[in-house]
Amino acid sequence: MAYLFYSITFLFLVVATVLYTTRHHWRSSAPPIPYLTTPGPIPAPLYSLHLRLLTLKDNLTHAYTPLPTSSSFSSSPAGNTNTFASDAAAGFHSATFDLSSNIESGDGRAGLDERAKAEVRRLMERRGVAFDEARRLWVEERFGREGIGRDGRPKDPRAFMFS
């Protein structure tokens, strides 16, 4: 029985190697795999499922992440309210956009961009979405203003891209 297993494994490795080395010949006639090779946005049901799973994972792993103590604020200039700690306290953080490493390391830079924060906050309030979804919508709107498609590719027909 062991010879059968090893023979099948060896045959699989040989076939996989041959297919990999000759992929430039047959890849153009292979059918596209939906959502992996086809460019475009992720369908809304799959994206919302992804967000729900991330939220569930975040809730199960750590229900509460405390903000650092006042010693973390010592590196920021006095009177500066635009810090990473104030951004985190205002709700501009999530499991996929974590500011805790900036806060814990005492990062002395200014926090997030004020105008971008205001636009994200407006999206959160107007559409009733969470921070991650509002940030995604803001990026897509900004891409649209800059002439970039939803998939991240330039809309300019003269653009040349390497694949």
What does this structure look like?
The protein has 7 helices and no strands. The chain has a domain at 1-30. It has 163 residues and is mainly alpha-helical. The chain has helices at 2-21, 23-26, 44-61, 84-89, 100-104, 114-127, 131-146. 51% of the residues lie in helices and 0% in strands.
Distance between the termini: 45 Å
Largest sheet: none
- In the predicted model, the low-confidence regions spanning at least 5 consecutive residues are 71-78
Percent of residues in helices = 40-55%
Number of E strands: 0
> What's the overall geometry?
extended
Beta fraction of the residues?
under 5%
Outline of this structure?
This protein is an all-alpha fold.
Which features does this protein show?
single chain, 163 residues, mainly alpha, 0% strand, extended
Topology:
Blueprint: H1 2-21, H2 23-26, H3 44-61, H4 84-89, H5 100-104, H6 114-127, H7 131-146
